[in-house]
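CORE FACILITY INTAKE
Project code: CF-77B
Contact: R.S. (postdoc)
Sample description: multi-component assembly, three entities in total
Requested service: structural model of the whole complex
Turnaround: standard
Below are the sequence entries exactly as provided by the requester. Do not edit them.
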Amino acid sequence: MVRKFALLLTGVLAALLVAGCPPPPATQNPSPPPGPGLSGTLVLGHFASLTGNTAMFGESTDKGVKLAAEEISSGNLKVTVHTLDDASQQQQVPLIVNRLISQYSVHALVGEVASSRSIAAAPIADSRQVPMVSPSSTNPDVTVDPRTGKTRPYVFRVCFTDPFQGAVIARFVREHLKLSRAALLVDAKNAYSVGLGKGFRDHFTRIGGTIVAEESYNEGDTDFRSQLTKIGGVKPEVLIVPGYYREAGLIVQQARNLGLGIPVVGGDGWDSPTLTNVGPQYFNDCYFSNHFSPEETRPGVREFVEAYRRKYGEAPNGLAALGYDAVKILADAARRAGSFDRKALRDALENTRGYPGVTGQISIDEQHNAVKSAVIVRVDTSSGATSFPLVTTIAP
Amino acid sequence: MQVFLQQLINGLHLGATYALIALGYTMVYGVLRLINFAHGDIFMLGAYAGLFAAVILGVTQSASWGAVFPVILMAMAICAVVGMAIERFAYRKLRTAPRLNALITAIGVSLFLEYGGQLPPMIRIDGFDFPFGAQTKTFPTGILPPTQITTGTGLSLSAVQVLTFVVTLVLMVGLNAIVRRTRIGVAMRAVSADREAAALMGIPTDRVILFTFALGSALAAAAGVLYALDKPTIDPLMGLYVGLKAFVAAVLGGIGSIPGAMLGGFVLGLTETFVAGYLASSWRDAIAFGILILILIVRPTGILGSSVREKV
Amino acid sequence: MRLVRRLIGGLILLAVLFAINGWGTAMQQAVNSRPDLQSIAFYRQFSIWWPVVLETGRWITLAVSLNLINGLAGQFSLGHAAFAAIGGYAAGAITVFLGPRLCGDATLAAPGAYPPGWNLLFAASLIAGGMVASAVGFLVGLPSLRLRGDYLAIVTLGMGEVVRVVIEHIEPVGGSLGFNGIPLITNFFWVYLVAIATILAVRNIAQSTHGRALLAIREDEVAAEAMGVPLTRYKVLAFVIGSFFAGMAGGLYAHFQGSIQPQAAGFIESIQIVVIVVLGGSGSITGSVLAAIALTLFPEILRSVRPELEQYRMVLYALLLIVLMLVRPQGIFGGRELSLRGLLARVKR
């Protein structure tokens, strides 16, 4: 009995001793000194969906990210990128973001494409005070906390947001296709689709269109015939599918099979070469909005497209271009800040004005979003391969 | 009215898939009193086996009706072998063990197939990867001609839907014939009724059980190929929910009863389609599980099942 | 006299937990905010393994609480993760919606180091989460009365999936999009307080007359009923208590990740808990604890040594299940327990 008590007491004393040891005082600043030609290695953590339902998103973005890192590293400043896979699952995001911060000690985070996953990562970036730049998430809640209405201090994006993208799609449908009765088929399972659908709905009704049907599905579903049959019943003129490419492809196929020959329009979530894997014959009259087209004539685009082709043997899509811009902007911010300190990076990012990205001029506004133009592309399978020729550009 | 008819077609199509898979669950439960959790993954393997068959036979772009049958048959054969292997190596030793242990093993086999399938490819034949990798693969719909049948009233039937109905009908008639008119069918029914007595009567129970697994797996494989022809993106986890719902269908119809599985499959398919079409599609998954819970509480033996007295 | 001793023991335990927590959280904060520490191996390893320590505690709670239902009462439940998810959502809802109003702004608080007001609210939210999970456990326990073995397993699986779909439709907590922005209040103290409470509670039940009743039900329901054991009461009791602790574990999880998704209630999550219980041995609390530690640490060690082996984790779990059932279905401990008294007695000899 006494022995037990003694054992316990020793344990307690040991614990208190250990607790009393504070970590050593901060050693003098080992981060690289500020100077004109910044040298050293900028360590970035890229969290992306390399496998799973939206694997193409992660793959494409990572290609752009790695190309940018390579190009920058040919100079004085080196960029190392650690990419971790979240398997297209929201619940993996906190795990791998924390791992990137703890295990790899990244200076900044790049990710994600899917808004739901960026939203899951954003509070972690803020609480661990690591700047996060989302290349392609378009939902407003990524940079602005919907509960407080305040901009998240450490989260940024280099693309436009869904209220704008929804308006772009609405304008295209009204002004180019000249149609006014739209059916909306939204993916209720992800923030992107819900937000983009809302953006479309708000603007479309404002410019004189009507939403004649609104149905939903869940990401991962493969059977949309119930919803499409219901939609077909009210005879819409156009079908809007603001979802991801895997479901969008199946939706178009099943719609065509059910006799719905109307135009189908989507958002940047369609951007994948595997969109038409279900069969090229279904995709006549299909369009979607996007951030970037290799056919654009802005300065810098051609060099980027050629460099990308040389490294990967294919043309870059919008996601790759945005991944590229995200990394380049971070390097630019590091140069402007003169250090890799996370707070300094954050401040420099906030002050980005007129950065010439391949996806357009990027200026970060008070909500940490980029104000840019969008493009509308058409799905073209006539030549046997899938391509997305440019139809029009719509400015804010 | 047209919407209703179209939904009816959709529901029957979905029901056919569930029915084919449910048959496998019910037959195995009949002979072994085991819920073969891994059965839904046989369905998934069937889709991949179909892809493999199409690649090997070179018919991915053939656009002809004749090409699809060898693909289905080959997929059925491959999965029959896999099903038998699972019984032989995972379940056989557990026949006398408590049922829970067998259930846990079945769950283990299911997880093994699902996550094993997601491992990075080690062998690559003609573009077919094994293991399959976590990315979705596209099933070659080019095997079939892109026929679309549109009736005068605006109803639409795709070639795959017609094929599904035809194949399901043929397989069900065939299964019925096997179970009722052949010796092995009689043996299966005997083993279902009382395994020990059947053994005492000289029936080779091990072989009958193997045959049952082979048969059930073949049906699931056919369902897999038909499903993949219709919804061409396949991935190693596709069998999880479809399999669970087909299990619900089997219980709904009366587990252990073959006509029950067929009935349960169509009832579940129709219910799911109509609720998704007329109420809200986001409740789709909950419907199947809700039905399961309801049935097990209200009428555990299912629609066509018979109650078995438990002797103390 | 015994009460006083117990109280002192309890206070010492609290003090120890508090001390370790203080140290750990301070270390974590330091590593977070000072890049110069990140290059020192000790600090970097700490920031990798400290979260693993917290994860282990959570899995211990989940495994031991499931063991009460599966192992001691013999009611095979495949929906335990649903209870955890419910607890997580409920606890998160309380801290997210009531927190700012009752405890003020906390956007500057470091993870695990929130002001005392928040910690009090957190404790309340954990208990509330546990109670909501219990209520659902009660509802699940009721139909379990009529179902045996594998049917019960399938029904609990179905319940878990229904819970998932229901959560997807609750808009105020994010619906399908998941519940984000939950304050990161979980720390070592809370995790291990809950874990130890769970172990003590389940152990006390197991060693009491109630535990005997549960064992009787597990071994032979008909005989137990014939001997006058009220089946209804005990089966439901097992579910209610087991789900209470699972709910608290869920609350800890939600406040650790900062978010929780409906998929957390799904079958795949439940299976991971089942694997731990089966490995440790149904009915053995020690088994569950040790298996939880092993199955949390082992993948982490694997990942830090060879990251590419991560994708084999679930495959190995599956093989583990199959091999266990074939070779040693009673698990490592097989219903026996390790006790301190037993160990000391052996040492004395």
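Facility notes:
- The radius of gyration of chain B is 19 Å.
- Chain B touches chain A at residues 2-3, 6-7, 10, 14, 118, 133-136, 138, 141-142, 146, 148, 150, 154, 156, 158, 231-233, 238, 273-274, 276-278, 280-282, 284 (CB under 8 Å).
Invoice: internal transfer
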